[in-house]
Write a structure and sequence with these properties.
Elements lengths: L1 E6 L3 H12 L4 E7 L2 H11 L3 E4 L2 E2 L2 E2 H11 L4 E6 L3 H11 L4 E3 H16 L7 H9 L6 H7 L3 H11 L4 H8 L3 H15 L4 H16 L1
């Protein structure tokens, strides 16, 4: 029996995944978690074979969680299920240590196939993303290329800016100093060709709204 941990801050999403997995006689949900701290605690107590992880978690980032799990136990397989843009995040999650990426809009129909593909030792991505990686295509959208140049931490800061999180709370949430957050903001402005904090905020808000559309 393959043991699976579901990490998502939405109870309905966790329930939906649990129901789909529960219909498979060889798979079982060994635990659920809504944030990073709970996920790490569940991993210690339940010892899952595979963790399904959302990128947006209460009190932390799914990318950070993937890296922490990988550093603790390299045998735990990880599959990301998220609403975020696959072309922007798929390569990042693979680099962090996950073995696949599935968009939540497709998850109801494809989550079991994705789980089995990862368990078999293969990487799971959409066909479009697989073709893009294999062909080395560069996205023609200049804005997306600019954002893709951001580091993982800069992307986290950029997203929090777009969500309206103040710098002080951002520093607390990411466990960084305010000065470090301000340094990241300066780097983001430079990479995106922005000249003011107002432009940065507007760009970040627009990007967050596009991610949620």
């Amino acid at each position: 029996m393959t043991r699976i941990l579901i990490v998502d801050d939405h109870p309905l999403v966790r329930s939906g995944f649990a129901q789909l997995i529960g219909d498979c006689p060889d798979l079982e949900v060994c635990g659920e978690a809504g944030d990073m701290a709970e996920a790490l605690a569940q991993i210690e107590t339940t010892r899952p074979d595979l963790a399904i992880i959302d990128l947006s978690l209460a009190g932390g980032s799914g990318l950070d969680l993937i890296e922490r799990i990988k550093s603790r136990d390299k045998d735990i397989l990880m599959l990301v299920a998220s609403m975020h843009d696959e072309t922007l995040y798929a390569e990042r999650v693979l680099a962090a240590g996950a073995r696949g990426y599935i968009n939540k809009q497709e998850a109801q129909d494809s989550i079991i196939r994705a789980i089995r593909q990862v368990l078999s030792g293969r990487v799971y991505l959409s066909q479009q993303m697989t073709d893009r990686l294999l062909s080395g295509m560069v996205d023609a959208n200049g804005e997306k290329r600019d954002i893709d140049s951001l580091s993982n931490r800069e992307l986290q800061v950029f997203e929090l800016i777009g969500q309206g999180v103040p710098t002080g709370r951002m520093a607390e949430q990411l466990n960084l100093s305010i000065k470090t957050i301000e340094t990241h903001q300066a780097h983001i402005k430079k990479k995106l060709g922005l000249s003011s904090a107002h432009q940065l905020t507007q760009r970040a808000i627009r990007w967050v709204m596009e991610q949620g559309s």
